[in-house]
Amino acid sequence: MKLLRSKWLRCIQEVAIHTGDGHGPGRCRQQDPLGSEWERHRPAVFGAAYRLLGTVADAEDVTQDVWVRAAGADLQDISDLRAWLVTVAARRSYDILKSARFRRETYVGPWLPEPLLTGPDASQPVLVDESVSSAMLLIMEELSPPERVAFVLHDVFGLEFGRIAEALDVSVPAARQLASRARRRVAKAKQSTPQASKAERERVLVVFRAAYEAGDLAGLVRLLHPDAVYVTDGGGKVSAAHKPIHGGERVAEVMVRVGRQWCPDRIDLAEVGGELALVFHREGRVYSVDTVQITDGLITAYRRVLNPDKLVRI
Fold first, then answer.
1. Which pLDDT score is estimated for 25?
2. Nearest to 165 by CA among 177, 155, 157, 183
3. H/E element holding 274?
4. Coil, strand, or helix at residue 93?
5. Could you tell me if 204 and 80 are in contact, meaning their C-beta atoms sit under 8 angstroms apart?
């Protein structure tokens, strides 16, 4: 993240030089407010992009693009800088999101959101709420790109529909309709995926970790719902199941077998997307980040990100 900040600094310095009028430091004085405000608004810019795209790498690229765009813009007449920056991030993310549909269709095996470290493990401040959890990001993945943008900008960031219409290049009534439709779809999906409390999640994961490390098949079965699903995202880069595995006993058997084959050096508890998750280490590096969905004390969905491209920032 320090490297990214240094890139942003170089970018704004270069823009200031090239936008000068030959009679002084160009826009340097004008951009001083941006420099002082950027660290305050950067979490919102990154947060909007991550919620829309589901990948840290793309969100970082969008954040840098927004910085460069802001550095070259006349910001004196902008009354709400945060809203303006988030709108720019959403517009850029929208373009990427539309093209990402093709990439997702050609992705090898199941696609899962890139893990985002939050809480005390995060290297930079991140805006955290349920919309950055893996479960919520997967729900939003089912929305159309315009619905996703409208929902994130209005329901998460509280932007007015005029800005949302501008970002999507639609009328204000159309923006309202998109947000309303997305809200109904999200609410319906959330009803079938109730969230466990933080205390219950920690209890289940601690017991699960002990059973996994011990290769305790019966212990794992007791923690898994009979209809549990196990999803692995290897992205074609590492060995991973290309289809979800269903059934608590079957999932437990696979986990025991994989645990014996790829014995981890250690398994840490860490906050990922605002929720407690398991981080597996092997041979001195992170080789998987696992998030779970828990209902009534049982794991109903177990999601494992193995794609090394999605783990380099953990």
1. 37
2. 177
3. none
4. helix
5. no
Contact 182, 147 (CB under 8 A): yes
Place of tokens 């270069």: 14
Among the listed residues 153, 33, 170, the one whose alpha carbon sits nearest the alpha carbon of residue 90? 153
Task: Provide the whole-model pTM.
Answer: 0.85
Q: Which residues contact 63 (CB under 8 A, 6 or more apart)?
A: 4, 42, 45, 46, 49, 89
281 pairs with which residues across the strands?
A: 266, 286
DSSP 152: I
CA distances from 224 to 227, 276, 283, 290 (A): 8, 17, 28, 14
> 193 pLDDT exceeds 80?
no
On the question of pLDDT at 129 being above 90, the answer is: no
DSSP E strand boundaries for the chain: 224-233, 245-246, 266-272, 275-282, 285-295, 298-305
Are the C-beta atoms of residues 158 and 86 closer than 8 Å to each other? no
User: 193: which 2 tokens?
Assistant: 């995926």
Query: What is the tens place of the pLDDT at every residue in 46-82?
Result: 999 999 999 999 999 999 999 999 888 888 888 899 9
pLDDT confidence of residue 204: 97
93: nearest Cα among 61, 140, 125, 135: 61
- The answer to whether 105 and 124 have CB atoms below 8 angstroms apart is no
pLDDT at 3 over 70: no
Contacts with 261 (C-beta within 8 Å, 6 or more apart), sequence order? none
Tokens read off for 102: 């093709």
What average pLDDT does this structure show over 256-285? Answer: 94
The CB-side HSE value for 303 (13 A sphere, CA atoms) comes to 21
